[in-house]
Task: inverse folding
């Protein structure tokens, strides 16, 4: 008979081993996206398969399970962090323990192959070559969701994975509300006919100066150089291995400096969350962002609410002028503010403006729902994609590279992730409203000092890591239930102002 | 009772698992040297410790051992590759199985800490902060060598690890022979007083153009872009994870383009070896270079014998002129050839010319011998280092950053590696002599076609991987025993010509 101390010790030792495997695989994924030469994909898939098998066995090990159960059965005898670790770890265990190990391993191998196939397919505008991989991923995702919750609708299980508690019903309601507010606003802008001058953005901005801008923005975003790095990739993302190693990535386009500029601020927003988790849980499974919705609330808060605000642009404008004197000759901060907020239906989600962005998400949400209720086949995705872009955004998709192949998420088996972007944007607007009551935020932003804002968010969100469920965490931060009308009101006010709508 | 087929299957499955751990740890080491932010060092050390423990257990597992023994006991019933795999794997197992697992794991953790401490120490010219790490590494290296071969001199055991069969006695004789030839040659050059014009190298060469030169040189070196990558680091190295993922690295200095140019050719030489291993052993433990001596024979062959030859410079000169028209105005290939072969005693091994290079190696060899026979303490290394640089090269070491802290090897626990550089250089000269008998190599080099040379070396060396011992491999390639006089004759002829010595 083990004492509770023995159980805790065994539990923590095993957690540390599981952490090590996650760390190694995470570094391999990072490497795959940043440096790995293409021919190594198969080898990497096999290695990830074998490591994930070892990790699976650690997570589903009997002695680990019984130690965890001991902790869960004696909540009064363990500290709060350990108890919370046991709860989260057990949730994660339940999600995977229902999958036979060989299927679990095969899924890792398939995912690596799919990601690499997608990269090539996008490059060559060749959906057909990606299709078999996609079909397999969808089939596996469906099967695993049903192993876990045989009686729940598959897409609900998927949504819950990225934003605990989110269901199709809630998401439908949310998107309906957002769409009802956005569509008339976008129509009014198009009818109105005015568009800001963006010609100064359509010039070559030297890459080495853009890299210097990244370094500057990382400072503005208070990214500690001892704990962070920035890589260059085709599709920017952020990854973290504890708060001591948080990496953002970006992509430079010579003729679109705003692309890298805002991707850096977006990714630095993700990083800020991870960098400010409490030290006491830094190495624990609790030591990371709680959900993709909350994560995107931060990245999109800094990118759009802060980064695309006039005070922020005023604060960084001297640096922009210093780096790009010729390109920005005669340009004022106000002109730059108007240009980077130009609202116009477009093809690419990651380059979309703040207003039309949610429509891009809705396209993906509608398609995912249908993929998982069986009413849409993967082979019909390009046609369905193009149709919805026509319907929601009024744009014609010229090819799959600029259509259904544009995002990496599906190739990594992430189905149900996209709604987080819109939910996160809405979280951000409600956080702003609360923050404005307590903090003179625009005065800080104008002087280029984001620290008080980050401190406010650290106190209410970042430091908790996964200790609270996303719903509880956000309600605590809002001091009220989640209310998407903050988001629609925020967008209406901002874009009515920008486009002189009455 | 298992059949031999069962043993082979079990053996191969376990080899694949061991490969996966080696792969993951290799990627983590690569990441540590290229992107990891400094604060993550401890975390990475712990993860590497846990993975190395798992790898150790796989390598020393009883059922694995008995499967391997079955294979070794029935050489007639297994194919030659499997038999060879069993021999090599058993050698490696014997080297580590004598080390208690906790000491083995701790050594991995200590090594990561030492590497990161050395990076800081070198940056801050602070040997004292590195000393405790170095002392621990030396102590551990000594202890492990004695576990493995309790009755052999420690330094012999270390030499053998990097170049199987090499002993202090052989190395002493080799270095004596080399030194006897080099010292009078270097003295004659210094007495003679002539030095080539190198002023055109002392100019700013834009980094983006240097990066373009790297891409060009990688093409010249036939590096398949599907299977290779080039990263930027402080201390260039090459790493490989099968022949499908071979990565070189370099460092750019604006005012020393030749530094990156020759480091790229050197590292591409290592890569060429790995890229041309036979497919049938690509994933096997046999699928990598057999020893550091043979590896350095290739890197230094391409860097110096080919890369610093006049025909090679003639072949790449149009590209150099295209990239650096202002810097190379009025410069001829012959002037460039003279400049990059300027022989002059200096402080930094990796920047040393081909002639004085071996003296840098000898300094390290003499110090390592003394560290491991107990006649030199780690704390006295800086003084001993500076003394030998004065004695062998006639230069005054200004600080430890340019002295004892310059190389990364010791910080990674690599003691006994350095002699490989000199032995490898000598191998290269003897290979050249043999190749010249069979191939009109300089005609190929002059037209920028290195393929026939690589084919010749693939046939005789690369394809074998670790299937032959280095001694047998090289003797087979030479068609004769190893003879260092090829090296001394080669250097004498080349530098007598360059410096107009009679």
Result:
């Amino acid at each position: 008979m083990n004492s509770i101390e023995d159980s805790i010790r065994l539990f923590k030792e095993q957690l540390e081993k599981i952490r090590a495997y996650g760390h190694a695989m995470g570094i391999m994924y990072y490497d795959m996206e940043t440096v790995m030469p293409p021919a190594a994909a198969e080898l990497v898939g096999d290695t990830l398969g074998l490591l994930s098998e070892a990790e699976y066995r650690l997570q589903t090990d009997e002695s680990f399970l019984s130690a965890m159960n001991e902790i869960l059965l004696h909540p009064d005898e363990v500290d709060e962090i350990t108890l919370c670790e046991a709860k989260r770890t057990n949730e994660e265990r339940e999600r995977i323990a229902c999958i036979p190990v060989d299927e679990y391993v095969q899924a890792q191998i398939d995912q690596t192959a799919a990601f690499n196939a997608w990269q090539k397919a996008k490059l060559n505008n060749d959906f057909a070559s990606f299709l078999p991989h996609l079909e397999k991923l969808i089939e596996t995702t469906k099967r695993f969701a049903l192993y876990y919750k045989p009686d729940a609708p598959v897409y609900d299980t998927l949504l819950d994975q990225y934003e605990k508690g989110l269901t199709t019903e809630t998401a439908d309601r949310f998107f309906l509300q957002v769409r009802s507010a956005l569509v008339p606003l976008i129509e009014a802008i198009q009818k109105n006919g005015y568009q800001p001058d963006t010609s100064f953005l359509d010039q070559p901005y030297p890459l080495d100066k853009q890299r210097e801008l990244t370094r500057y923005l990382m400072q503005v975003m208070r990214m500690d150089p001892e704990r962070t790095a920035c890589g260059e990739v085709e599709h920017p993302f952020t990854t973290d291995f504890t708060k001591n190693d948080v990496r953002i990535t970006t992509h430079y386009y010579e003729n679109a400096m705003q692309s890298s500029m805002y991707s850096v601020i977006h990714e630095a927003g993700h990083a800020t969350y991870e960098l400010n988790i409490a030290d006491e849980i830094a190495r624990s499974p609790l030591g990371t962002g709680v959900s993709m919705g909350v994560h995107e609330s931060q990245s999109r808060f800094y990118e759009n609410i802060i980064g695309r605000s006039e005070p922020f642009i005023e604060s960084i404008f001297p640096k922009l002028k210093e780096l790009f004197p010729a390109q920005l000759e005669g340009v004022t901060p106000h002109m730059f503010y108007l240009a980077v907020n130009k609202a116009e239906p477009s093809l690419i989600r990651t380059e979309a403006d703040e207003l039309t962005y949610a429509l891009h998400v809705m396209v993906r949400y509608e398609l995912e729902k249908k993929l998982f209720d069986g009413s849409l086949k993967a082979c019909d995705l390009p046609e369905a994609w193009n149709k919805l872009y026509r319907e929601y955004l009024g744009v014609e998709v010229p090819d799959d590279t600029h259509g259904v192949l544009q995002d990496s998420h599906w190739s990594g088996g992430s189905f149900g992730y996209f709604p987080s972007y819109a939910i996160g944007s809405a979280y951000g607007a409600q956080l702003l409203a609360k923050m404005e009551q307590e903090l003179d935020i625009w005065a800080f932003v104008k002087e280029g000092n984001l620290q008080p804002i980050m401190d406010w968010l650290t106190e209410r969100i970042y430091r908790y890591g996964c200790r609270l469920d996303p719903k509880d965490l956000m309600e605590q931060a809002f001091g009220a239930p989640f209310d998407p009308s903050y988001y629609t009101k925020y967008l209406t006010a901002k874009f009515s102002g920008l486009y002189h709508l009455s």
